[in-house]
Amino acid sequence: LILSKTSSGLNIIHIAAEMAPIAKVGGLGDVVCGLSKALQRKGHLVEIILPKYDCMQYDCISDLKVLDVVLQSYFDGQLFKNKIWVGTVEGLPVYFIEPDHPAKFFWRGQLYGEHDDFKRFSYFSRAALELLYLSGKKPNIIHCHDWHTAFVAPLYWEIYATRGFNSARICFTCHNFEYQGVAPAPELALCGLDVHHLHRPDRMQDNSAHDKVNPIKGAIVYSNIVTTVSPTYAQEVRSVEGGRGLQETLNYHSRKFVGILNGIDTGAWNPSTDNFLKVQYSPDDLQGKAQNKETLRKHLKLSTSETFQPLVGCITRLVPQKGVHLIRHAIYRTLELGGQFVLLGSSPVPHIQREFEGIANHFQSDPHVRLLLKYDEVLSHSIYAATDMLIIPSLFEPCGLTQMIAMRYGSVPIVRSTGGLNDSVFDIDDDSVPVQFRNGFKFVTADEQGLSQSMERAFSYYLRSPESWQQLVQKVMRMDFSWDTSAAQYEELYEKAVARARASKNL
Ligand code: ADP
Question: How far is CA 428 from CA 34, 59, 354, 413, 475, in A?
């Protein structure tokens, strides 16, 4: 590998299946990029290892070149060759592994959703560790993410550490416990792990399907640090209702488990420099926000006759987690309350997509409602900027980014108090929270009544006086959701783990 550690900072390696903006499906991609950039700014050497997908945004990778080495890695009883590429993404060094394997693991036109995902990502996890081992690097932290690279933790401690590659401590972050990658136990042997040794209740055996192995469980057991993406979600997943079968494992390993709220990329999400907007604006000059509202209403052919008509937005994947029935309810409740509603979202679930297509058609030429059933990055910026409120009625939400982006653009969030929504949104009427932190409207029970009540409170606050609403908008826009705070928490965890390792004279 071409880089080695020179500064006094840590050498941190992320091994992941996603990285924004080149290979992103959801929040995982944003975290890998945003956290890495923030840690780099703090003086650490941060490198990322990704699969070399065919469907990446290659125009966002600079200086991409293939290295003059052939890496051989183990899989299913054989050694396979891999090409190693290196490039720069958002100022970060990234290594890409391209397997020379007949199954063409990363030439599928999509990141996930293939019948052999377990094979694809256990292959990748093994090859990534082999790359680090053969490079002779001595990283301080190897940080893996979600079930796709969860294999790294047992592979490292069971295979590589015993070969003398033991400089690193392993950090594992789970971005959503809904996805665990459970598979029949014998499949674990493909990447070289010993099934008999690991298919046990205290290691990788799935807590419900006893003939299966669970990569997330393996990473919880084998990592030195386990994190998830908000403190409230970290609590929720330790309960029977939230743990998806892993609550016992998390409770047993609770001393190394912590929730850290994600940040957002405040460079990319900045209304005062955002080139996607008709007019840029800041908390000190909100005229531009009003112009963006006017522009979007015209663009979507919504009525513009009432300037002070509240415009409610929703930007989301339309999946059950997001409370789709409550989103539907919010559309009708907004109309009853005299507001306007714009939804930007699409669904991988055919019956949900069909249902929303029906609603979209129904409101096709309505002056107050528009549904846009697609993924559209540019339009999402316009909607954050134009709306007065953003609705997020999730049934569960590990962290959630849209509430933080909305606030940065002066759109006040109306959210269900779950996971990261609970940690970033504080109700205007909650006397137990200092006034300076109150920034939105929250409801507890995931039903229509709870949502309606919080919407009514938001509408009456909006209509009571334009001045007090403007002050609220300015306040939420000034809140700090940058990565700096979260990155400092990861840094502290890393440093403690490294110090513990040194103290135990392992290094
Ligand atoms: P999740 O990762 O569960 O989808 P998050 O709130 O963590 O939810 O992240 C959602 C991200 O995806 C945000 O950046 C949001 O702006 C973006 N997004 C969601 N749906 C769309 C869409 N239809 N068009 C454009 N961007 C979208």
Answer: 29, 44, 36, 11, 12
